[in-house]
Each structure stands twice: as structure tokens, then as C-alpha cells.
Write a structure and sequence with these properties.
Distance between the termini: 31 Å
CATH class of the largest domain: Mainly Alpha
Pfam family, one: EF-hand_7
CATH topology of the largest domain: Recoverin, domain 1
Radius of gyration: 18 Å
CATH superfamily of the largest domain: EF-hand
CATH architecture of the largest domain: Orthogonal Bundle
Number of helices: 10
Strand content: 5-15%
Protein name: CSEN protein
Number of domains: 2
Helix content: 55-70%
Number of strands: 4
Family: Belongs to the recoverin family.
Strand order of the largest sheet: 1-2
Oligomer: single chain
Structural class: mainly alpha
GO molecular function, one term: DNA-binding transcription repressor activity, RNA polymerase II-specific
Keywords: Calcium, Lipoprotein, Metal-binding, Myristate, Repeat
Order of helices and strands: HHEHHEHHEHHEHH
């Protein structure tokens, strides 16, 4: 097996990244310096990503959510994040349109990437978020909280009652429901 640290990954040219993201040249250069200082090889494997991400949530267990987040950033699904994967995802999350952000969020929840979100997928993500936030939340959360949260969301989103949420249902529900939009903004801060 090839060690990631032995491989030097060359990022796309600056001009291409300027065209593909909503970052300025200075912002891209600064992001690249930070990325290279954390990841000298130019690639981040999932374990390293989990270690870095877990530092932001010392009060809980962020490993499962970090796994789902890694999958969402790993656009080509090759098991490693390069600078392009990272910066393109970050651009959507920080500067994307509402539609782009919701598409990214849908992709995060669609764990098996089949184009639908099931109640089970939504519950897995929600449990991982609750685990990451830890037991130190006020008021203290009950163990049933993720399932109750999912039940409420899923009923709103599964508009035709077929047991799955399509992107169209997800988009329409999120854009029309102030509660969902505000809760999505809470989770935006998690990233």
C-alpha cells in the first residue's frame, strides 16, 4: 500500500481554482499555506481528517460526523482529500448560493449516494452530530433526541410519503420552512 505522505500531490493551477471557487487569489494562497502546513504531502486521508476535525469538538466524539464530512468533501471518492476537494467544498459552504449549500447538505445526508435520503441515513447523521456536540449541552439531551429530531424533519420532507426524500423534496421543504432553514444554519457552524 502506498503511503500518502510519500506522494506529493500537485494542486490545480491557481487560475483554475479562481474560476471554480468564490475565493480571491489572496484567500486561495492563504488557504493553501494553511492546508500545506497541516498536510505537507498535499493529501489528507480520513484518519488525519478525523484527528484535525476532532480538535474542534473536544467535548464529544466527532469521529463519525467527520467520516460523513470527509465523504462529502471527497468529490472523486478516492479516499484522500486534495486541496481542490477541500477548497471547492469550502467555497460552496461559505460563499455558495442557498441552492448550492442545500445540494451539498443533501449529498452529506445521502450516505450511500443513491439520490435519496432515507430515515435511517438521516438518523445516522443526526446521531453523529449529537455525539459530536457531546453530553455537555444545556439543557442535557435525552438519548431519544436524535430520533425525535429525525421523525419531525422526515415527516416535513417526505412530501409524497414514499419513505425517501428526493433532492427536490429536500430543497422545497428547506426553502419553505423557517425552522429547518434556521436549524440548517446552526449545523452550518459545525463545518
Amino acid at each position: 500500500e502506498l503511503e500518502l505522505s510519500a506522494v506529493r500531490h500537485q494542486p490545480e493551477g491557481l487560475e483554475r481554482l479562481l474560476a471554480r471557487t468564490k475565493f480571491t487569489k489572496k484567500e486561495l494562497q492563504s488557504l493553501y499555506r494553511g492546508f500545506k502546513s497541516e498536510c505537507p504531502s498535499g493529501l489528507v486521508d480520513e484518519e488525519t481528517f478525523k484527528l484535525i476535525y476532532s480538535q474542534f469538538f473536544p467535548q464529544g466524539d466527532a469521529s463519525t460526523y467527520a467520516h460523513f464530512l470527509f465523504d462529502a468533501f471527497d468529490a472523486d471518492h478516492n479516499g484522500a482529500l486534495c486541496f481542490q476537494d477541500f477548497v471547492i467544498g469550502l467555497s460552496v459552504l461559505l460563499r455558495g448560493t442557498v441552492h448550492q449549500k442545500l445540494k451539498w447538505a443533501f449529498n452529506l445526508y445521502d450516505i450511500n449516494k443513491d439520490g435519496y435520503i432515507t430515515k435511517e441515513e438521516m438518523l445516522e447523521i443526526m446521531k453523529s452530530i449529537y455525539d459530536m456536540m457531546g453530553r455537555c449541552t444545556h439543557p442535557t439531551l435525552q438519548d431519544s433526541a436524535p430520533a425525535e429530531h429525525v421523525e419531525l424533519f422526515f415527516q416535513k420532507m417526505d412530501r409524497n410519503g414514499d419513505g425517501v426524500v428526493t433532492f427536490e423534496e429536500f430543497l422545497e421543504t428547506c426553502q419553505k420552512d423557517e425552522d429547518i432553514m434556521s436549524s440548517m444554519q446552526i449545523f452550518e457552524n459545525v463545518i
